[in-house]
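User: Please predict the structure of the protein below. I'd like the answer in structure-token form so I can feed it into my own downstream comparison script.

Assistant: Understood. Taking the following sequence of 284 residues as input:
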Amino acid sequence: MNQITMTLQADHLILEALKEDISSEDVSTNAVMKEAVKGEVELICKQDGIVAGLDVFRRVFELLDSETEAEFYCKDGDAVEKGQLMGKVTGDIRVLLSGERVALNYLQRMSGIATYTHSAAELLKGSKTKLLDTRKTTPNMRIFEKYAVRVGGGYNHRYNLSDGVLLKDNHIGAAGGVAKAVKMAREYAPFVRKIEVEVENLDMVREAVEAGADIIMLDNMSPDEMEEAVRVIGGRAETECSGNVTRENIGRMASIGVDYISSGALTHSAPILDISMKNLHAVE
């Protein structure tokens, strides 16, 4: 994550996380550390996976004290192993103790998403299908979670509601049908925006094609229905499948020949990657 993105989009979120964890003071740390003492702590991986979020981890400590220094022996996207020394953080021991939990929460969560995404993306190797995330992200964590998806080898769907047109079942219901929804979107949305339509059956597929949708999302269809839908579309629109996509069934979906597979599980169901800060000690 580059410095401009960090400053404009992430710093205020990290500060809010720190304020949540330290409402007035860190009582435990202040009880045992009466004054500033320079210290060093090791960042240890406790589980095999893909690391993501090192810059965010570092930034937590920098926002508490700009003189804190972090040295990493790996980079985002690297495979890490249980027991591996990933880096060291040096600075005021009070800062290292007070920032530890927030910094690890970000790093563990983001690395877990990158690890899960990587395992799913590997199943699509050799196919034309790209793996996408969704907006099913943790509130106020979207920028971090979607970044982690990219680190893991996936791609980002729209970032938010302002980012693109996706006409889902309730939009279609409100408009009075697929054709009407697409027509209204064409008239309202900027011409640079593609129009994606979510469909649930073959009749809706045909209607979306005739209406000129740019992307057709096949939602919660059976593999047989998806195969028929891809045949009906015949390249006249890009295709995406979604709905209960997991590592266990993603290969079968890719074999159908869709352009994209979107999975909310990448962000809402990825377990954390176990990472710890250990061996804190004073240094000269």
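That's the full token string. Residues 93-122 form the longest helix (30 residues).
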